[in-house]
Design goal:
Elements lengths: L2 H20 L6 H13 L2 E5 L6 H12 L3 E5 L6 H5 E7 L5 E7 L6 E5 L6 H13 L1 E4 L2 E4 L5 E6 L12 H4 L2 E6 L5 H11 L13 H13 L4 H12 L10 H6 E3 L3 H17 L7 H12 L4 E2 L1 H6 L3 H11 L9
Parallel strand pairs: 1-8, 1-9, 2-5, 5-8
Antiparallel strand pairs: 3-4, 6-7, 10-11
């Protein structure tokens, strides 16, 4: 298969999946495209929004369209790590003997929905760290690989904070994108009512399996990126580091910590996926800028002054994107 054919196949597959999801999910174009971008890049997604905006429905629909095994975990304060990873149980054999057998938990699926992940205790939240990063879990004294492909799509409610445990920075950094789910428009809300209150049900078609997804993910890694475009991604990340030579004034004023190196990796991979979806086999400055917000917003930590003035990481990033020049060399 030639490069042009591979790009065409990727773009057609992407838009077919996007179209099938659109048969179920009304609007939320930015959110759907962000989730698909992360999936094709092989990353996890954190969906933040108030209840009832279709976050869970989106994840279920994605699992159907991609023909992946799916499991859902409702995180609660009494959830234990073994409830997610699995545990050894005493099983009685046909001959009457009893022996320990490992019973897999819901994390052993291609697509795991971690619903309201911030309602679980830190001990349980940390059980997801190894799974998200290493694609394996340690349970029952053994290291057990997870099925591939493996994605975690987690949701959290930003408003109801009673009885919640904010995710630690180490776990937030393992999410490829953080997507903020907003309210639908009047036209979108009307369409939601038409679809959900008139007895019609839509079953999306299966467009891709795990093996096909793996091939497209490998194509993403092969997309070339020019050195000056890669430098732009580096300079964006360095500009978020306060009290350094590369820091901007807005960074020094409002940030306590900047993005980790993983943020730069996400910028590059997310930009490669975006380029392919538009039929290009090279990454542009616009591709980097387009994925900067979901890639970096959860990797910045604001200081007390920002909290007091209501300055969010999104506002800081908007200023960073305005001030960092696109075509300039990185000082090595």
């Amino acid at each position: 298969m030639t490069t042009e054919q591979a790009i065409t196949q990727f773009r057609e597959t992407y838009h077919s999946i996007r179209s099938e999801i659109g048969r179920v999910i009304v609007g939320q174009d930015v959110i759907v495209e962000g989730v698909l971008n992360a999936v094709f890049a092989g990353g996890h997604v954190l969906l933040e929004g108030v209840p009832g905006l279709g976050k869970t429905l989106l994840v279920r629909t994605l699992a159907d369209v991609l023909e992946l095994s799916f499991s859902r975990v409702q995180f609660t304060p009494d959830l234990m790590p073994a409830d997610i990873l699995g545990t050894n149980l005493v099983m009685e054999m046909p001959d009457g003997r009893r022996e320990f057998q490992f019973q897999k938990g819901p994390v052993f699926a291609n697509l795991v929905l971690a619903d309201e992940i911030n309602r679980a205790t830190p001990k349980t939240q940390s059980a997801m760290l190894e799974a998200m990063q290493e694609r394996q879990v340690t349970a029952g004294g053994e290291i057990r690989p997870l099925p591939l492909p493996f994605f975690v799509l987690a949701t959290q409610n930003p408003i109801d904070q009673e009885g919640t445990y904010p995710l630690p920075e180490a776990q937030l950094d393992r999410f490829f994108f953080k997507l903020v789910v907003g309210y639908p428009t009047a036209a979108e809300l009307l369409e939601v009512l038409n679809r959900t209150t008139e007895g019609t049900q839509v079953s999306p078609a299966k467009m891709l399996d795990g093996a096909g997804l793996g091939e497209l993910q490998r194509l993403v890694r092969q997309v070339p990126i020019a050195s000056h475009v890669k430098d732009y991604a580096v300079r964006l990340v360095l500009a978020t580091h306060p009290k350094t030579a590369t820091a901007l004034s807005v960074t020094n004023q409002y940030l306590k910590f900047g993005s980790s190196p993983r943020g730069a990796q996400v910028l590059i991979l997310g930009a490669k996926v975006r380029a392919l979806t538009q039929g290009r086999f090279s990454v542009s400055f616009d591709d980097i800028a387009a994925v900067a917000m979901p890639a970096l917003r959860h990797r910045l930590i604001v200081n007390f002054e920002a909290e007091a003035e209501g300055i969010t990481t999104d506002l800081v990033l908007e200023q960073v994107l305005r001030e960092v020049p696109r075509d300039s060399a990185v000082a090595v």
